[in-house]
Sequence to fold (61 residues):
Amino acid sequence: MHDVTHATRSDIQLLSNHQAAFADILSPEALTFVAKLERTFRTTRQTLLRKRAERQARLDA
Fold:
């Protein structure tokens, strides 16, 4: 199970059990960059993940 460990911006929520490590790595600027990537590529990322799951389901059948 993941715990909410860090949320510097209202539109970013990180789920992890590794709070201390993230605090050292994910500065507010890094979180802003990740949020921008997510907004830009969300649709493509979701489409690729869906296709990956569909392909895996066919292989598992």
User: Anything to note?
Assistant: DSSP finds two helices and two strands in the chain. The helical segments are 19-25, 28-60. Confidence is low (pLDDT under 50) at residues 1-8.
